[in-house]
Amino acid sequence: MEIDEQIFEFTDDIGPEKIIHLYEPRTGMKAIVVVDNVAAGPAIGGVRMAPDVTLNEVRRLARAMTYKNIMAGLPHGGGKSGIIADPKTVNKEQVIRTFARGIKNLLEYIPGPDMGTDEASMAYVYDETSRAVGLPRELGGIPLDEIGATGYGVAECADVARDYINLDLNGARLVIEGFGNVGKPAARFLAEKGVILIGASDSKGTIFNSKGLNIEELIRIKELTGSVTNYKDGEVLTTTDLLLINTDILIPAARPDVISDANSDVVDAKLIIEGANIPITESAERALHERGILVVPDFVANAGGVITASVEYHGGTESLALDRTKNTIRRNTKELLDKVYNEKTYPRETAVGIAKERVKKAMKFREWM
Ligand code: NAD
Predict the structure, then answer these.
(1) What share of the chain is helix, strand, coil (3-state, %, to 5)?
(2) Residue 68 CA neighbour count, 13 Å, CB half
(3) Catalytic status, residue 270
(4) Which CATH number applies to 2-141?
(5) Residues of each domain in the chain carrying CATH 3.40.50.720
(6) Residue pLDDT, tens place only, 23-45
(7) Spatial separation of the C-alpha atoms in residues 264 and 277, rounded to whole Å
(8) Contact, 300 vs 336, CB < 8 A?
(9) pTM score over 0.85
(10) What CATH number was assigned to the domain covering residues 149-298?
């Protein structure tokens, strides 16, 4: 009885439908796959590779994908997987191929890239299973990180959200936590709207200049040396000090739970657009909202990557992917924030309400598969 309760501890009215532990004893490959909900179609979700990835993390990310995909109007449910391995030390091709063989018959799950995996990893998955998104160009893929699909959507989201707090993007100050595949294009696309990047961080530290950082130079330095802290014209701070910077817009674009009840009170921003998945705990999001800081939740703001992946899967082009990203994210941000401001609710609760209602409508049309 006790075991049963443990296994089903996290189930609710929409999922998760399948939780699978994979173990291949010859190579020692260990992985977790969560298929959360497939009412709208086969689940799309990334394959994360990290030595410390947990069932709880994979489960929460799988649910975030269910919400993200249904919000974006994609014919896909949500899932996620985690391979428990250090991508820097393992034979990545071997581990990925072993994982892919393990999920070959799990037809309702379409893997994509995530932290620790990339387009080459997806090419191996595709070779083994004939299902994957985020493929290299040579295999018909749309390289979503190269085109900055998620950052593009994040910038469009900010452009809609600013109306609700009377923020002029022209001259607005921006701080980015995690200057990677989401953070860099977000900075570029927001700069096109007149925003000034004043702070950016990575795992090694933060670079800050209240007069503005040169984005192209910062990207060059990050790519050349591995860290933003080697940029010359700025003050180097610790990674965590980034949150103390007074700014108009803050984009967390790195790890989960970086802002929690332990540090949310130091955040000094007007608008937060969640570029990363689950970067702020739910109670911290509420606390920020109480302080008048508008937070647009991850699955509304950062859907550009999965929209692009879905367009790729269904044979569409790069320009269609960008158009769809822009239109979908602008429409969803407006629908969400109209509701939040009219009904005086919290953004995440409201967004989850909209997404869950759509999932439940989709579920009415489907038998369990
Ligand atoms: P990335 O690896 O390209 O970049 C992450 C950056 O964060 C790196 O520069 C890294 O140095 C930095 N970083 C790591 N730990 C940090 C810390 N503690 N503080 C500050 N910076 C830190 O990853 P990415 O693809 O940009 O993804 C970032 C987040 O966005 C992840 O949560 C990912 O799941 C999410 N996400 C990515 C996409 C996408 O299209 N790439 C789409 C949706 C969501």
Answers:
(1) 45, 20, 35
(2) 36
(3) no
(4) 3.40.50.10860
(5) 149-298
(6) 999 999 999 999 999 999 999 99
(7) 17
(8) yes
(9) yes
(10) 3.40.50.720
